[in-house]
Amino acid sequence: MKIVSWNVNGLRAVHRNGYWEAFLKGTKPDIFCFQEIKAEPDQLPEDMLNLGGFSAFFSPCKIKKGYSGVAIYSRIEPLSVIYGMGIKEFDDEGRLIGAEYDDFWLLNIYFPNGGRGPERLDFKLRYYEAFLAFCEELRKTKPVVFCGDVNTAHFPIDLARPKENEKTTGFLEIERKWLDEVIEAGYIDTFRHFHPQQAEAYTYWDTLTRARERNVGWRIDYFFVSKEFIKNVKKAEIHSTVYGSDHCPLSITV
Questions:
Q1: Per residue in 4-37, pLDDT tens?
Q2: Which helix (H) or strand (E) holds 110?
Q3: All domains of the chain in start order, with CATH
Q4: 42, 102, 103, 149: which is the annotated catalytic residue?
């Protein structure tokens, strides 16, 4: 089974620009998780809403149209689906959707960006804290896999210019500390598990500066699995040749 995660920066834009079919052919997913879909289900074209062989589940933003939102498409019918963490201020932004399968929970999250002032950084850090607690509760029932745009690079190897970005949100010490906590709690960064020393492996590039052409990027998208599930993970990949967004897809094979 291949599970793919992708911050699409607008699901309708990916379809309109012709990248939708290239994505499906290039990654061949069994389950795929989209972040930042920026759409309600009734705004999507028919071939995205009813993709043959897949069940689709959406959690759009409730407070602003064209913002945030997450979706899961799955060939395997989930046992149950969860929409949010049960915390209104977080759930209204459409940042989490989860699916329960026989052997694990899959959580697809679009974590907040810490930019646009101290209030949003505080929101991001509180979201982080609430999410890890939520994960740990689910983990009591079965292993957890979570993926998505975490909006933080963990180590200097995870971005092209670490020194220049030490004071930039997305690489602040306080944000990176939360990723330390995730690992200390027993979750494994699957890409680093299989590629511990691989440099210049990024998932996001700034479009205004055409950073992708120079590979001046950040690895801020992840698949984490609880350590009891890592034996089931056979491969972790970054699909940097798939275009259509300022992020590229990533995947694990289970």
A1: 999 999 999 999 998 988 888 888 899 999 999 9
A2: strand 105-110
A3: 2-253 (3.60.10.10)
A4: 149
